[in-house]
Specification:
The protein is mostly helical. The chain has two domains: 94 residues, Arc Repressor Mutant, subunit A (Orthogonal Bundle), CATH 1.10.10; 72 residues. The chain contains seven helices and five strands. The strands form two sheets. Strands 3-5-4 form a three-stranded antiparallel β-sheet. The protein has a two-stranded antiparallel ribbon with strand order 1-2. α1 packs across α4. The protein is elongated and about 55 Å long. It starts with a strand and ends in an 8-residue tail after the last helix.
Length: 186
């Protein structure tokens, strides 16, 4: 499937997840890069990792392709971007392509894999810190769920976040009971 952009032809597969997601966020109206980052941080950030430099780079790419247009500079030199008709067409084509497999990036699991090389109290500290962080995230998702938004798709993502964090907190709690008190290997 190909999508015609204002500045030439391109395959839908050339829209990466960040570009497609930015086009999706822009369906609600023009937003600056900062506003897009704030929207991601308000709930989606744990499922979609993006940096500010990545957002701005992708906005420039989308603009070069004619999928968004830049508005006039506003406060603090922030530039609002609006989705174009071609951008809407590209988003519709992109969102209909089946998403790829997920990849879990959980640094604690790498540390735990080699946990036999750590003193038990060091590993216990890592586990306690992780449990505290996941409890904080669980509270965040619960507060986001209480916000007055009537979008069942967004609610499904927040529901996943709640279930995921509850499972991680429970798993981390079970690790407290499983910790082996033998000295670390050297």
């Amino acid at each position: 499937m190909t999508v015609t952009f204002q500045k030439g032809m391109s395959r839908v597969s050339e829209l990466n997840a960040t570009q497609g997601s930015l086009l999706g966020f822009l369906h609600g109206g023009p937003k600056t890069g900062w506003e897009l980052l704030q929207e991601v941080e308000s709930g989606l950030s744990r499922f979609w990792n993006v940096t500010s430099s990545h957002v701005y780079r992708e906005l420039r790419t989308l603009e070069d392709r004619g999928l968004v247009t830049a508005g006039d500079r506003g406060i603090r030199a922030r530039v609002p971007f609006a989705i174009t008709a071609s951008g809407r067409q590209a988003f519709r084509a992109w969102i209909t392509v089946a998403p790829g497999d997920e990849q879990i990036r959980f640094p604690l699991l790498v540390t735990l894999w080699f946990g036999r090389f750590l003193e038990p109290e060091v590993l216990d500290g890592f586990l306690a810190e992780a449990r505290s962080e996941h409890m904080r995230r669980l509270a965040l998702y619960r507060s986001v769920r209480q916000s007055p938004e009537d979008d069942p798709h967004r609610d499904a993502v927040i529901g996943f976040g709640i279930a995921y964090e509850k499972a991680i907190v429970e798993w981390l709690g079970s690790m407290d009971r499983k910790q082996d008190q033998e000295p670390a290997e050297t």
